Every structure is written in C-alpha cells, then in structure tokens.
Amino acid sequence: MSLSVQGAPHLPPVQRVNTLMGKVLLALVPAVIAHLWFFGWGLIVQICLACTLGIVYEALMLRWRGRRLAPFLTDGSVLVTAVLFAFCLPPLVPWWVNATGMLFAVVVAKHLFGGLGYNLFNPAMVGLAVVIIAFPTEFSQWLAPLGIVDSPAGLSQSFLTIMGGRAPNAMGLDAITAATPLDLMRTGLQNQLLIPEIVTSPIFGTLSGKGWDVINLAILLGGTWLLWQRVISWHVPVATLLGVIIVTLPLWLISPDLNPSPVFQLFSGGLLFGAFFIATDPVSGSATPRGKLIFGLGVALLTLAIRHWGGFPEGFAFAILLMNMMVPLIDRYTPPRVYGHSR
To answer: For a Cys staple, 17 with which of 60, 64, 75, 223, CB 3.0–4.6 Å?
Structure first.
C-alpha cells in the first residue's frame, strides 16, 4: 500500500521561480501601457532588445560555466532583469547603451558572482548605473510626453532611431526631446527660481511631470498587486515611502517655495519603481523583517540625498546599490527572535 505524503495544511505552497518572475512581469503591464501611451513605442523596442540580449548573454555564460541551459533560461529571471533595466532607459537611447547595460547586468553582476541567488548587487541597477556614468549625453535624451507633442514616436521611427544608433534629434525629433521633471526642478532651484515659477513649464502635470504621474500610479497599482499576491513583503515599500514623507513633509510645510512636496518626490523619477520592483529583490536585499525596514529607509534617504546634493537628478539606482553593500551588516545585526528564546 502506498501513501501520499503532503505538507500540513497550514504551510503555504512554495511558488516556483518562473511563477514569481511571471507575476512581476504581469505587475509591470499597466506601467508599460501607460509609458507606451505617453512616450511612444521606444520602451517596447528597448524591452525586446534587452530581453534578446539578456537571453544571449545568459546562454553564453551558462555554456562557459558548464551549466545546463534549459532550467536557467526558462526561470524568467533574465527577462525580469531585462524589463526592469529597459524600463529605466530613455525610450530612444541608442542600442549600444542597452547592450552595454545588459552586459554588465547579466555577465558581471549576475554570473561573475555565481549566478541566480548569489549576486550581491541587483543586476538591473548595476547595468543602469554603468550606462548613466558611461553615456551621460545619450542618457539625457528623454522625450516630451503626449500633451506637449501631438503624438509620440511611432514603432518604425522608434526602431530606426534606436537601431541606427542616433540621437532623437538626428531623426527629426529634436522638437520633442525634453528634460525630466526632476532635472527641471533641480536646475530651477539651482538657478534661484521658486517652485511656483518652475512648475509653470508645460512638462509638469498634476502630481509631478505630465505623464510620469500616471506611469507612477500604474507602478503603484502593480506593486500593490504584488503585495496582495505575497510576491513581495510590505516592509521595504512602506519604509521607503514613509522615509520620503518623513524627510520631505516638514521641509515642504516650512518652505513650499524652495522644497518639493512629498507627492512630487514620490511620483517623479523612479522612486516608486525602485521601492516596489527593485529594492524588494530577495537576493540582493535584506532577508530579515527589521532589516528590510532599514533597507527601505536607507534607499529613501540616499535617493533624496543624491537628488539634492549629487551629480545626477535621479539617485534611486545608486541608492539601491549602496544599500546592497550594507545588506550583510544589516542582516547580521537584525536577526529575528527564535521561537522559544529571548532576544
């Protein structure tokens, strides 16, 4: 007689890696659609290019390391890295920027550290940090959103611009390139302008930049769904959001003409994206409940510091990488209490 032995009913089922990665990709769909609506087809081309390059790099590294291809190419991890990385790029950045970033993300940050589950740093953020530093001119070629332009760049125009390796103005798109809201805010404050004067630019919308507020609302929707699905825990996103509010709210209340509001800080740039989709990485992030709170708070504080004092208008990628370095120390001093033992 054979008996079927299963886990107790109170134990949650273990989700496979490809299931978790699929849910992350599904949660990004609303933000991708919003990005497509406001900025055109550039993001779709960048995602397809990053995914193709990521699979090629992954296959080459697996072959070089003597590993089987099928289990690792089908777990979805390289696709998540590619989509997260592509989402952070200017829509029409030349193809070699994408190729360089994915090279560092997959080959250096992932496989040279031992592969999936062994990477110290978040691969997508390593790739992003490299291209921000290596290609500052190309990375400044952001597009003006729908509402400022009559229609965003189409699929063929986006494809030719990206694969031709030319800047948007070389394809006759100079009239629709623009700085990001964070960049305009930073430059305006450095030029002694007041915030009411800065936000008169047509690129600003209701919550932050025109189009960016809708995209970040879609990111918030996708992140909330991940929480509901228990793909991520609440600790890092809540700590990041509360950290931004706690720091920026008093400054904004004291001097709203010189300090951006908490809403602007949260719905501009990639802070919400980083809080829900990057900093919650179970491999490069903290593993303890208290450690996750410290990790999220550190991401918030470092992002705000880089935005204010750093050399780049956006700082979430560097903030996450710096906190990745602190994870072993954080986890060492924040272990959870073992049941039946005192702290």
So the answer is: 75
